[in-house]
Amino acid sequence: MRILMLTNRVPFPADGGYAIVVHNTIEALLNQGYEVHLFSLNTTKHYIDTRDIDDPIFPKIKFYQYKIDNRIKIKDAFLNLFSSQSYNISRFFHTGCANRLVHLLKNNQFDIIQFEGLQVTPYLDIIKANSDAKLIYRAHNIEYQIWKRLTQQESFIARKIYLGILSKRLKRFEFNILSKFDTIIAISFVDQHFFESLVQSVPVYTLSVALNLKKYDNEYKLSPNKSVGYIGSMDWRPNIEGVDWFLEQVWPNILQLGSGITFHLAGKNIPKQFEIMSNESFIMEGKVDNALEFISRQHVLVVPLLSGSGMRVKIIEAMALGKCIIATSIAAEGINYQHDRDILIADKSDDFYKQILRCFTEKSLIHRIGEGAKKLVEKNHDQAKMGLSLIKIYQDLSAKPI
């Protein structure tokens, strides 16, 4: 079976949530003997020089790319207000890219074409007109929900109004596009139920974030100091918002304990507002070469997400490494967890403070939560199991008449 995957960025290296999910899906399909073609938008924001890719699975796929400038431009954003289009989506469409796809489809036959995320769906109609392949929408999250939650958290009135416009247009686009696919694959059962409530005519399945668990044998050393860590892409608004809230509402109370606990912040494109706060108790690590080593080094990981949607891949990775995680219920959304068994849930600043305090005062709590987390991942997030489930979806879909 020949598969074409469309992605809104080049998923190599697999150093972020979206890239890890796509990369592991490709690897699972290759392990089952499938032929995988990958067409990626190589965007300005996440540009990758493909000559530098050093990944053993990259030579095994057929790769195509289109370089696209998706930067937010003030003039374009302003003019977009007078149209009915979603600016979040229109930035990813380019006529040249559409023509490249048409050429690809005229010269290749595919059994399945899988759209990885909402940003590549503007090419759906063009692809339907030029291919008889079955079309799958892989929803990494519910996009409009991210912007709706950002709007709710925003206090500056002008920005709140603008975010509200973006959210409503994105919602309209997202809801209208769903019924045009043959199948929808959600990242969690929570998202699956949401999609099923919108489109009764299209089957919806769940394939959670899945990892190659052999890569998560924790052989890294734990920090000798009491450390609390956070890692995430710091050019994503929900992450910035969450870390800002944590540093303002939670961290000062931890410092008052005088217990020597340090906070370590890692991630790419960290804003200067955080860099200038760095001191002996707030360690700025920036973009790290080895994310798994950073995660393993921490005694506790925090994920103070206040908005967003989908499933946090870094939480699943940390769980696979047997780490104790304190997260908001939004951050843990979609994970089949039990509070105080696999993870510690904290939605208010006082809750975060109390859970961090528990971790460093209750004997064996960190170890107990970490063990529970590791068992959860082994049960629900194994790459090999995910690959077999995905193939079953493909086979069932291919058996249906066009």
TrEMBL record:
Molecular function in Gene Ontology: glycosyltransferase activity
Annotated ranges, domain Glycosyltransferase subfamily 4-like N-terminal: 16-188
Record-linked PANTHER family: GLYCOSYLTRANSFERASE WBBK-RELATED
Annotated protein name in UniProt: Glycosyl transferase family 4
Gene3D superfamilies in the record: Glycogen Phosphorylase B
Magnesium as UniProt keyword: no
Biological processes per GO annotation: lipopolysaccharide biosynthetic process
Keywords assigned by UniProt, alphabetized: Transferase
Pfam family name, one: Glyco_trans_1_4
